[in-house]
Specification:
Helices cover 50% and strands 15% of the residues. Helix 4 runs antiparallel to helix 5 and helix 6 packs antiparallel against helix 7. With 389 residues, it is of the alpha+beta class. The strands form 3 sheets. It has a 4-stranded mixed β-sheet with strand order 1-4-5-8.
């Protein structure tokens, strides 16, 4: 393991996390993959272990640790081979909770962040819309102020934890005529009248609940506004750096897991009198894939280190997601090939891994959109700046 970024304390944390996942999570994964529901008890156990509070202030029950503890959490979640379970955990911890922590008032943090850290409340982040996809600025959901309340109407889709979460962090247009400058962030309880969710049936990430959510005259107190009205778009853009880096880290960890499994299989599988890891074509294909994975991993660690220091790394995080998710897709595809017919069988891990990996270049901004964002930064010299808050 790279000692440039990981201390002995990091390594001890990794070992304890591995032990926890092996004991508390792995025995249930196949059931959760089949039912599409992660049972509630595991959220509480994660909270008791402090895993939801790694990056959050001690004031609200967090541990305020450096970002490489988060890197370890993300990597180890990928190595139990359930992209859906991992998504449930990190979407709660680093999508919903990030906005609560950064934009929420003290009162909101006391109510939602504290309970999120203990695992008593599960959150989801609602940005993507049925007609918008990666076009965040094209949002149609509105939040119109009426006295000391806001009334929300519209819909969101592809929302992880969208069915079983306890609260929603929602982006909506407070000024529909102001384009991206008219967007704001809100928080609301799941049982607020007018909120409904429909579970979506997915190719992969089977253990996660993904929903389309409708808001029909949902009325919430004005105090549920998070941050400043009209600042929603820069808040979202600012946090996209972390989200994209998370998906980049997930990708290199997923690829590392696939390669290690394939390497072990190839060392045991025989053909024509020798193990298949002795055939030059397979050996050379393997090391090409390993080299690509290792380059992405080192790049991702470097970006994580800069983000940990407080740098605004939206360009670098975008590159991380773009290149790492493509690499992970290539690795999953080829590792399935290394296993031959067994790779296509559900009892082996590659079938699920291939399905789960395919979401990487789609979710959190498609690769096509990311290339255009990078083109604006690299070619057009457009500069994105962090939000004021």
């Amino acid at each position: 393991m790279n000692n440039m970024y990981f201390t002995e304390e990091h390594q001890l944390f990794r070992q304890s996390l591995q032990d926890f996942l092996k004991k508390e999570v792995v025995p249930h994964i196949d059931k959760w993959e089949e039912t599409g529901t992660v049972e509630r008890f595991i959220w509480k156990k994660f909270g008791e272990m402090g895993f939801f509070g790694l990056a959050y202030p001690e004031e609200y029950g967090g541990l305020n640790l450096d970002l490489f503890y988060t890197v370890i959490l993300l990597e180890e979640l990928q190595k139990i081979n359930s992209g859906g379970f991992a998504a449930n955990i990190w979407a709660h911890t680093y999508l919903a909770m990030t906005h609560v922590n950064k934009e929420g008032s003290h009162e909101i943090k006391e109510k939602y962040l504290t309970a999120s850290i203990t695992g008593d409340k599960i959150g989801c982040l609602c940005i993507t819309e049925p007609f918008g996809g990666s076009d965040v600025a094209g949002m149609r959901t509105t939040a119109i102020k009426k006295g000391d309340t806001y009334v929300l109407n519209g819909s969101k889709t592809f929302i992880t934890n969208g069915v079983y979460s306890d609260y929603l962090v929602v982006a909506a247009k407070t000024d529909p005529d102001a384009g991206h400058n008219g967007m704001s962030m809100f928080i609301m309880d799941r049982d607020t009248p007018g909120i409904s969710a429909t579970k979506l049936d997915k190719l992969g990430w089977r253990a996660s609940d993904t929903a389309e959510i409708a808001f029909d005259n949902v009325t919430i107190p004005a105090s549920n506004l998070m941050g400043e009205e009209g600042k929603g778009f820069p808040y979202i853009m600012q946090h996209f750096a972390l989200e994209r880096l998370i998906m980049g880290i997930n990708a290199h960890a997923r690829a590392d897991y696939a390669l290690e499994y394939a390497r072990q299989y190839m060392s045991e599988r025989t053909a024509f009198g020798k193990t298949i890891d002795k055939f030059q074509a397979l050996r050379h294909s393997f090391v090409d894939l390993y080299a690509d994975m290792d380059m992405c991993r080192e790049y991702n660690y470097s970006v994580a280190n800069r983000l940990n220091k407080g740098e605004y790394v939206v360009k670098e995080a975008t590159i991380s997601k773009l290149k790492s998710t493509k690499m992970a897709d290539d690795v999953a595809y080829q590792c399935m090939q290394f296993l031959g017919g067994y790779g296509y069988m559900e009892e082996y891990p590659m079938a699920r891994l291939l399905r789960d990996s395919r979401l990487g270049p789609i979710g959190g901004g498609t690769s096509e959109i990311l290339r255009e964002i990078l083109a604006k930064m690299v070619i057009d010299k457009k500069e994105y700046k962090p939000a004021a808050k």
